[in-house]
Structures are given as C-alpha cells and as structure tokens.
Amino acid sequence: MRDTFPLLVKTDFPAIRRRRLEILQANLGYRCNQSCLHCHVAAGPKRTEEMSWATMETLLAFAQRQGIQTLDLTGGAPEMNPHFRRLVQAARAIGLRVIDRCNLTILSEAGYETLADFLAEQNVEITASLPCYLEENVNRQRGDGVFQASLEGLRQLNALGYGLPGSGRILNLVYNPLGPSLPPDQTALEKAYKEQLATRYGVVFNQLFALANMPIQRFGSQLVTRHEFHDYMKLLKSAHKPENLDGVMCKTLLSVSWQGEVFDCDFNQMLGLTLGGGPARHPQLSELMDIDLASHPIRTADHCYGCTAGQGSSCGGALVAGEATGQGQSLATH
Fold it and tell me: For 5-333, which CATH class?
C-alpha cells in the first residue's frame, strides 16, 4: 500500500484551534469482518490490534473528569473488540451518549446474533455505513454479498424500533462517494435514500451523513496507483470554503487510538500526526486527565481540505445543510 503522508504533510491549510471538548472518539481496533476500498484505517479480518480493558477504563475516567458528553466508538468493527459490551454498559451507566459506528453486516455474523438486541437495550445510537442504495454499487465498494447482509442488518434494527419516528432509537446512515469526487448535496441525497430504501426494501432510518473520502490509507493509495491523487487534491482545494472551518469536528473532538494515544482526529491518527503539532511522541490519554485543551492548536495537513470542501464533511455529515457542491456524482448512479 502506498503511503500518502509525504504528499500531504506540507500544507497551506488555515491554522485552527480547539474549543471545549464534547466528543471522545475511540478506535477499539482494526479487526473487521470487511475490507472496504475506501477504509481510511485499512481494517480487515486479519488485523489483530485491539484496545485493552485498562485503556477503556481510562476512556471512562477521562470522560467523567473532562465532562465529555459523547463516546463515539469506531474501528474496524468496534463490536469485534471482546470488551465492547462491557465498555458500552459502563459508559451508559455514567450517562454518556454512546455512538456505535457499525458496518451493519456484523449483525449477521456468527457469534453476534444478540448484538442488535444489546444495542437497543443500551439505547446506543447507530451510525451505519451504506455507501449506496443500489446493490451493485455497494458490493463493488465493499465486497460481494455486503448489500444483502446490510439490508438484513437494517431490518433487524428497524424491528427493534431503530429509525422509527418517536422510538428514541437513532439510526443514521453514512454515504461515501464511490470514487474521487465530492459527495452530492446531503439533503437531496438523504431524500433519495429514504425514498429508495423505503420503496424497494421497506427500510427506514433517521439521517444520512454524506462524507468525503480522505486521501489516506487504502483510498489514498488507490489514488496514487491510478495517478488520480493530485487531481483529487486539486478538487478538494478548489472547493475549500472558509466558512466550514468553524464546524470541523476536530474543534470539539479528541481521537484515541487502540493503544490509548491521543490525536486531533481519526484521520490524523491514521497519518501519525502528533496532537497539536507538538513533540514527536504521542501523548497517552492518561497524561491529559487534568489538561484543558480548549484554545490549543490543531495539527493540520493537506487532507484537512477533505473536511472543508464543498458542503463540508465531518463525523456528523455535511457542515452546510442543503447546499449542493456541484461536484458530486449524479443521484441516479448511487
């Protein structure tokens, strides 16, 4: 896999600083039941890295000490960490909002038959990846059979009240473009998703988050191999909107690796960029228990343009609602 770090590290991206922390995003490990082409952490079934329970205890202690509201769990497939359920229960017991970034297919894997019930019992919010509402496109990006397994997962969740109005059980979907283009307007795409999934498959959900692909890890390597990297970076930079800087996720989020190291965001974590552009050593979360990071600088590189291009992109989707980018793929192709 080709490393894009040398192509990104020299940057003219505007300087930005943190605000008060609201979200602690934890990568529980790189093991996953899928190997998606767009995966920015290069997760897969053969990866063995996973967060320990001791590190998870530090997560919980840090969240309480810093008054953090949300624990955002990602991976890989975060549910494959053997301590996942214990962590969720402990987080909910101290009043944390918990988000599970679920790939949907894990709900159908052997050994995970009770996972959907567990998530519902704990009232965990689910943010699930579904890069298209057409079977051919999903399987092309994520592998044969993934679309049908994803539908089965959605139906399981709907049966438990997820995505249904008034249920209180939140089910959001995530869209990524199939190639080197910006996402279409999130509002219009969400409408198309809801119409198509309801009409074709009887499936419902709450919101759609349209995220740009980051030029790092597998996707970045693919761009370099296809000689598309520089064109994609030109697209991101030409579509940069200064007004999106105020809403970028790194201003209120802290990213924690499976080893307990701290980064400004999940993408910086994958590039190994130190917190705030500080010394080469990555601080452990345990070292920051009593440190107020508000107003601290955020380390940036050229991949940051992926968050400010067009309608903007964050873990919660577009930063500018209802504004077409003019760069996305046609809705008819999704």
Answer: alpha beta
Burial label, 290 (beta-carbon count in 10 A; 0-12, 13-18, 19+) = exposed
pLDDT of 40 reads 62
Whole-number pLDDT of residue 310: 95
Using one digit for the tens of pLDDT, what is the confidence trace for 54-66? Answer: 999 999 999 999 9
Q: In Å, what is the CA distance from 83 to each residue of 55, 72, 119?
A: 11, 15, 14
d(CA 44, CA 197): 27
How far does Cα 227 stand from its chain's mean position? 26
Regarding beta strands 171-175 and 208-210, do their DSSP bridges make them parallel or antiparallel, or are they unpaired? parallel
Residue written as tokens 């896999």?
A: 1
* CB 169, CB 127: distance < 8 Å: no
Q: How far apart are CA 270 and CA 240, in angstroms?
A: 22
> Domain boundaries in the chain?
5-333
Answer yes or no: are the C-beta atoms of 306 and 213 closer than 8 Å: yes
The overall pTM is greater than 0.70: yes
